[in-house]
Design brief:
Helix content is 51%, strand content 18%. It is of the alpha/beta class and 239 residues long. 39% of the residues are buried. The strands form two sheets. The chain has a six-stranded mixed beta sheet, sandwiched between helices. Strands 4-6-8-9 form a four-stranded mixed beta sheet. α1 links the parallel β2 and β3. Belongs to the enoyl-CoA hydratase/isomerase family. It comes from Streptomyces sp. 900129855.
């Protein structure tokens, strides 16, 4: 089951399969597709899991074991890669709220987001090698962009699973919060990012855009009602 919460420009997508540690199966992929369709138009997106044990524990091996041919395996991998690509290409900021462990495919889903906020007792790892397979949902390439090619090879090649604090040190996780503050913390950050200007900043920081495009984005926001209301508040404090 995949749930969608929409509030004030923020879309929160929750993978809710506690019986399978929020693992992804073909049915869940279909629900994710429909949920992302429904989230279109939101200014920011959060992807998280239910409970405190797992963000996403990877692919649901019991369900995916039905895939016995190379063509079937490739089709599944490309379908989920497309979903991760959609998340990465979401127009506004995307936050992966790591409520629990993000392992294998779960780590791949996490790095499709623009930033990762983790509870301090969470672990994250690209441990597909333990199953004699490789990341196939775009995670290897995104991991390399975050931590560098050599470190990505080391992490994914050995299947090392990191504590949240170590993942933060390496740049794989952006913010680590105490468990007691986690739910409030990621929501505060996501709400702060659910703005037009944060979407423009995402464009400037994640895409190679010419200077004129950056100036055009600034100009669009400069003439907006929101800018002048905020400016008036600042100027009125100095009077």
């Amino acid at each position: 089951m995949v749930e969608l919460e929409l509030e004030d420009g923020l879309a929160v997508v929750t993978i809710d399969r506690p019986h399978a540690r929020n693992a992804i199966d073909p049915h869940t992929m279909g629900e994710l597709e429909r949920t992302l369709d429904a989230a279109a138009g939101a200014r920011a997106l959060v992807v998280t899991g239910s409970g405190e044990k797992a963000f996403v524990s990877g692919g649901d091996l019991k369900e995916l074991a039905r895939l016995r041919t190379a063509a079937e395996a490739a089709g599944m991998a490309l379908r989920m890669r497309t979903l991760c690509d959609r998340i990465a290409a979401f127009p506004g900021p995307v936050v992966a709220a790591l409520n629990g462990h993000a392992l294998g495919g779960g780590a791949e889903l996490a790095v499709a987001a623009d930033l990762r906020i983790a509870a301090d007792d969470v672990r994250i790892g690209f441990n597909q090698t333990k199953l004699a397979i490789v990341p196939a949902w775009g995670g290897a390439e995104r991991l390399a962009r975050l931590v560098g090619p050599g470190r990505a090879l080391l992490l994914a090649g050995t299947g090392q699973v990191l504590e949240a604090s170590e993942a933060e040190r390496l740049g794989l996780v952006d913010v680590v919060l105490p468990r007691a503050d986690f739910a409030r913390g990621w929501r505060e950050t996501a709400r702060a990012l659910a703005t037009a200007q944060a979407g423009e900043i995402k464009n400037l920081t994640t895409r190679n855009r010419p200077d004129r495009e950056a100036a055009a984005a600034f100009a669009r926001l400069w003439v907006s009602k929101e800018h002048w209301e905020a400016a008036e508040k600042v100027m009125s404090r100095g009077r």
